[in-house]
């Protein structure tokens, strides 16, 4: 059937759906242009093959001008979970930073040169060595925190890598600025080129609750849009606000080993 194998790749998800009316949500072979080899991408057939939420952002080089700024506001947060997918070919990377008027690291997620993951909430840092993740393979990262118990947790590929040993309490104000790819040393600026993200990023979602560990584990199995209900921020919210040398590539190429089609 259309899209089920490399040799019968479809041009688009919508084309596959038009040829196979019974096609369901899942991963399909696509060949959207003649200059690229066929690739596997998730098709949301429930939404008629719409791909507005299926794209990757490619940060092509280290530069303080390369960042994505969220153009919508957030509510005050007394709990959150943020999950996204990335693949990188360097270390010393800032994935995201959320700053407010008096806190430059209200939320910040960072991979150091030595492989140390750092997760900051309300300007307080938790860190741990977690291995090598700049291997050009797609990885999922989730961070969560709640004021009620105060502990931060960081998961990589569904496995708990960091659990804070001290509690962090408070409320993260919703008046801040969320930026992908840079660390805000001042509100909305003062970026450091040597910490700028270089690689690919996809499918970032934010929930105003601390998701169960079992949910985070299940989210790591499939790289796709709309992974779990209840989010207050979705990946399509980042399709605008792109600055600098960043390419937006439609039809996400983010695929896990569970979804590789032969």
Automatic annotation (TrEMBL):
SMART domains: LamGL, PTX. Keywords: Calcium, Disulfide bond, Glycoprotein, Metal-binding, Signal. Residues 53-254 form the Pentraxin (PTX) domain. Its cofactor is Ca(2+). It holds the Pfam family Pentaxin. GO terms for molecular function: metal ion binding. Disulfide bonds join 83-142. InterPro entries: ConA-like_dom_sf, LamG-like, Neuronal_Pentraxin_Related, PTX_dom. Gene3D superfamilies: 2.60.120.200, 3.30.750.130. This is Pentraxin (PTX) domain-containing protein. It comes from Pocillopora damicornis.
């Amino acid at each position: 059937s259309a899209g089920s194998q490399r040799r019968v790749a479809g041009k688009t998800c919508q084309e596959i759906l038009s040829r196979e009316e019974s096609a369901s949500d899942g991963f399909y072979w696509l060949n959207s242009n003649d200059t690229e080899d066929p690739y596997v991408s998730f098709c949301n057939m429930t939404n008629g093959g719409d791909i507005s939420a299926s794209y990757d952002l490619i940060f092509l080089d280290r530069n303080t001008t390369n960042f994505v700024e969220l153009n919508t506001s957030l509510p005050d947060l007394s709990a959150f979970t943020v999950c996204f997918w990335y693949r990188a070919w360097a270390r010393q990377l800032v994935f995201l930073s959320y700053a407010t008027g008096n806190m430059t690291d209200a939320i910040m997620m960072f991979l150091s040169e030595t492989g140390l993951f750092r997760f900051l909430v309300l300007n307080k840092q938790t860190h741990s060595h977690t291995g090598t993740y700049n291997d050009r393979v797609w990885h999922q990262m989730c961070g969560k925190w709640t004021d009620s118990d105060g502990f931060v947790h960081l998961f990589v590929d569904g496995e708990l890598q960091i659990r804070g040993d001290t509690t962090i309490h408070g409320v993260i104000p919703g008046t801040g600025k969320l930026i992908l790819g840079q660390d805000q040393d001042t509100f909305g600026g003062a970026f450091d080129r040597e910490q700028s993200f270089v690689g690919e990023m996809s499918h970032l979602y934010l929930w105003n609750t601390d998701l169960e560990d079992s949910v985070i584990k299940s989210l790591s199995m499939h790289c796709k849009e709309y992974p779990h209900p209840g989010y207050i921020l979705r990946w399509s919210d980042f399709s605008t606000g792109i600055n600098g040398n960043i390419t937006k590539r439609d039809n996400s190429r983010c695929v896990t080993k569970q979804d590789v089609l032969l």
